[in-house]
Specification:
There is one protein chain. The protein has helices at 4-26, 33-67, 85-88, 122-150, and strands at 91-98, 101-107, 112-114. With 154 residues, the protein is mainly α. It has a domain at 4-73 and 120-150. A three-stranded antiparallel beta sheet has the order 1-2-3. α1 (4-26) runs antiparallel to α2 and α2 (33-67) runs antiparallel to α4. It is elongated, with a radius of gyration of 22 Å. The N and C termini lie far apart (48 Å). The chain crosses the membrane at residues 6-28, 40-64, 121-142. This is Integral membrane protein.
């Protein structure tokens, strides 16, 4: 998990650079629809990756809190949520789900519940930005195909 955060940040910066650099080379007004769509896909992908890395930082903090032993460490600190007092007393372990991103408190008997470690906006925002990036990339591919068909001799 520790390597995913810097990798996500590097990928986010690279995608932003690609997206904005593509527009910067030609200029926003002179850019074709295909270039605009590719740039939008790259920037939306960068936002999705950055948000996911932000959520991973929250998960890493929860894991550090859960692994911190000593006085007051039972029940696990991330599993102590408002309104879940009695349920937190049955927590025996934890796990991390990466899709959707969440910290899961595992209880006796095989059940579990998601702790509020990851802000509620992270997973929907990552999904929305990723889907929008895929749609933009698909539209750029369709635009490219149309351009190839319109050229004479193609």
């Amino acid at each position: 998990m520790i390597l995913l955060v810097p990798a996500g940040l590097i990928l986010s910066v690279a995608l932003t650079g690609y997206g904005l650099g593509s527009l910067g080379r030609v200029g926003l007004r002179r850019a074709s629809g295909q270039v605009r769509l590719k740039s939008a896909a790259a920037v939306l992908g960068a936002v999705a990756v950055a948000l996911y890395a932000w959520g991973l930082l929250h998960i890493a903090g929860a894991v550090l809190d859960a692994e911190d032993g000593g006085t007051g460490s039972s029940p696990l600190l991330p599993c102590r949520m408002h309104g879940q007092g009695e349920r937190a007393l049955t927590v025996v372990d934890y796990s991390v789900d990466y899709i959707p991103l969440r910290f899961v408190c595992e209880t006796k008997g095989g059940g579990g519940y998601a702790a509020e470690s990851v802000p509620g906006y992270i997973n929907p925002a990552v999904l929305g930005c990723a889907l929008a990036a895929v749609v933009c990339a698909g539209a750029a591919a369709v635009e490219s195909e149309r351009g190839l068909r319109k050229r004479p001799g193609a």
